[in-house]
Amino acid sequence: MCKVFSIASMKGGVTKTTTSLNLATAFGLMGKKALAVDLDPQGSLTICAGVTQPDKLTHTVYNLMDTVLDEGELPDQSDYIIPCEKMDIIPCNIKLSAYEFNRGHEIGAESALKTIIEPLREVYEIIIIDTPPALGILTANALVASDSIIIPVTPQLLSAVGLKMLLKTIKKIQKYANPDVKIEGVLMSMCDTRTNLYKDINEIMESMYSQTVRIFNTVIPQSTLVGEAILNQQSVLIYDKKSKPSLAYKEFAKEVLSYV
């Protein structure tokens, strides 16, 4: 049975793309057939996954969503799904930024991605959606298409406090568009657990959210290896499989599956 996860946060720089890439890769290394969907117009996940020249791609998530709203026929899956190491990806480029302006007002604009993903549930065991750092029509598409939401938070005050707005948006999606979507939990990422800053933010998270939202036991450590891996357009699990962040992402994948 396929499980669709959105990696979501209203704040940029909280490792949404890094989490999407490494979690999908971790699932792939566990033998799961995993697909990543890049729904951020910056196309960072596409680039990090090793896709070259994304601006020249004929088929991207934007073209697919456009086709859905035009009630056209989607191309063959092999035309728009790109195999990567240990996972596949539906790529994205800057053209996706036009979706909200050009099509966001149309009926069904918030559910186009769901139409694309539904038949893929028969092909994949895990689907990970990387979302933009905004609570607009693209993030709404991700939440409507998903079963669960994973929220990465870094040890910064604005990252922790900003969680409130995302939780409100999720409640609206649950009420009006996707009553079955749930919050899987909050992932603490890029953490140096030795610092007072981490301890203070962790206390804030526990006091503000732990009664209503699961805070995952796994903590992703801060490491320059993650950045080095991205520079080489690789998951850190491929770049340095024995590193602390690699082991943490593997543990996180196991923890996520334990709740499914």
SSE run: EHEHHHEEHHEHEHHEHEHHH
Find the count of extended strands (DSSP E, 2+ residues).
8
**Which descriptor suits the 3D outline?**
globular
Q: Could you name the ranges where pLDDT drops below 50 across 5 or more consecutive residues?
A: none
Structural class: alpha/beta
Share of residues in helices: 40-55%
Q: What fraction of the residues are assigned to beta strands by DSSP? A: 15-25%
Whole-number average pLDDT?
93
Q: What would you report as the Rg, rounded to the nearest angstrom?
A: 17 Å
Sheet with the most strands: spatial strand order: 3-4-2-5-1-6-7-8
Number of helices: 13
The oligomeric state is single chain
Distance between the termini: 10 Å
Main β-sheet: number of strands, strand sense, barrel status?
Answer: 8 strands, mixed
Would you write up a description of this structure?
This protein is α/β, with parallel strands linked by helices and 260 residues long. Helix content is 44%, strand content 17%. It has 13 helices and 8 strands. The protein has an 8-stranded mixed β-sheet with strand order 3-4-2-5-1-6-7-8, sandwiched between helices. Strand 3 and strand 4 form a beta hairpin. Helix 1 crosses helix 13. The longest helix is centred in the last third of the chain and has 16 residues. The protein starts with a strand and ends with a helix. The mean pLDDT is 93.
